Amino acid sequence: MTTQTTAAETPSTPTAAQAGLIGLPAPLGRALATGGGVLTIVSTFLAWTWTAEFPGDLTVYGYPGGLQVLVLIGGVLTTLFGVASYGVKGLGWLTPGSADSALKTAALGTFATAWYTVIAISAKLGGLVNLEPGGYVVAVATLAALLGALALPFERPEPEPFDPDDTGRERFRHQSRQKWNNVKAAFASEAPAPARTLPAYAEILVIAAAMALGLIVFTYGIGTEYDQLFIGFLLTAGFGFGALAKAGLVARVSAITARHRNITMAGAFAAAAAFPLTQSNDQYATIGVYILIFATVALGLNIVVGLAGLLDLGYVAFLGVGAYTAALVSGSPSSPLHVQWPFWASALLGAAVAMVFGVLIGAPTLRLRGDYLAIVTLGFGEIFRITVLNMDGTSGPDVTNGSNGISSIPNLNILGFDFGQEHQLLGATVGRFANYFLLMLLITFIVVVVFRRSSDSRIGRAWIAIREDETAALAMGINGFRVKLIAFALGACLAGLAGSVQAHVTYTVTPEQYQFAHVVPPNSAFLLAAVVLGGMGTIAGPLVGAALLYLIPAKLQFLGDYQLFAFGVALVLLMRFRPEGLIPNRRRQLEFHEETEAPAVLSKAGA
């Protein structure tokens, strides 16, 4: 018996294949989207509510505040991309990729932020009656802009054939999959054509502008004062970055930074070093230094997981080894050693002891692969925590004070510079956590340099070969055990180095800080999530992933018991729709998206 397959009905005219998601004429849709963007900008200068009980004071005419600023940014992007989609001379640089896709993404993000604000006002104040005319105007304007953008034509994918004998459920699934493919095609964009090479000074200015923009976005996000503003910031930043990527601007800037890697890295660290100078107190510098500790350890784990392909579920134990080692020789009254070493000596000792532990754990276990190795490393992490918990003088020798930990760790004093005191730097007051932020930034720079040099070296190529196919790598003469042991030891060393600073930042080192999973990072589960979420095998990926994984839970505390649930759902959705991570290397991106055009040249790390 032969099964007959029938092709799905296809449009008979080219115009049908180029139609938009909404049945409006393309010229009308484009005008509606652009006009909606302009009206959105105007609406942000109107009052959205009559009372200041809603955070941000949206009652003022002529001066946007709070969430209005975010909607204003979305309206500006929507208007610019709408005007550029007409092919206006002089705006071609704005959309080297796809103006229509950028317009749709910007309109969708503006709609989401505006309608979230309107709903939040109504929910908090008790109904739509609390909206002023500006609230209604922005709701109508953003909806019109979105409908107009969705009416823009796009190339629809070829429909998949279906079996006439399919059940109703199977046909429904087939139709749903086809509709979803159409939606993805509507927002898809082509890679921009290579741009002409600018003068060196112009490209450096572009890099400086990109770093300054990144500093502004990060400073604004970390300084959001209330829950509604942070959620609006996430919506605006996410869709705004997506719109810039669809427009091709991100690819253009990435090409420029690839030609000036050293300048880009120097600019990124200079922008990060300027962050404490933008703060009036230590409130957000505290979050910044913990993000740097988390990101630095995640970058060390990226050597083990991202480059060598070894699944380590107990990596936070190496952070604990470095922290306990530095605490024992810090001069703390809780330390049984009663010695106080200078920071450089305690940092080197913490890194060395962590590396020794990495070798001792890796030597007997790295002959295992996959799940078996993961189980062994998970066991090591728990063994470390239980061991330091029992070394309290009762269940074992008196070394770590058990659950009380090593407390009263003194502040660092390097060459007369007391990290516990306020200092004046370039006219700004730098507090305790800002001091440690700058020190941790230096440690992060060292870790980045080590990661970059090792990934580009001969041993780095051997790690990647082991990660891709260990059997083939062994057949080509690579000593797999030696190569993996080096990765394990180097990753542990970098984690120990970060731990030596963490001990002084937190004042106290306790076993509860180094669990496999906990609400507050860093822990092994969050570290692994930061590497996978950000992008395995890259430098920027774990740094961005760690910043998001630390910042988002800290800002979602208003959800109470549902905090981790919402956070988990967000991670699941992200891994579903972008499994390669936020900033993937090119090789890994091709593994998940086979339809993506392969690059002409791949670097050693596949970036």
From TrEMBL:
Domain of life: Bacteria
Chief location category: membrane
Keywords attached to this entry: Cell membrane, Membrane, Transmembrane, Transmembrane helix
Compartment(s): Cell membrane
Protein topology in the membrane: Multi-pass membrane protein
InterPro entries listed in its UniProt record: ABC_transp_permease (IPR001851), LivM-like (IPR043428)
Transmembrane segments annotated in the record for this chain: 31-50, 70-94, 106-123, 135-154, 204-223, 229-250, 262-278, 284-305, 310-329, 341-360, 372-391, 433-451, 485-505, 525-552, 559-577
Protein name in UniProt: Branched-chain amino acid ABC transporter permease
Record organism: Streptomyces albidocamelliae
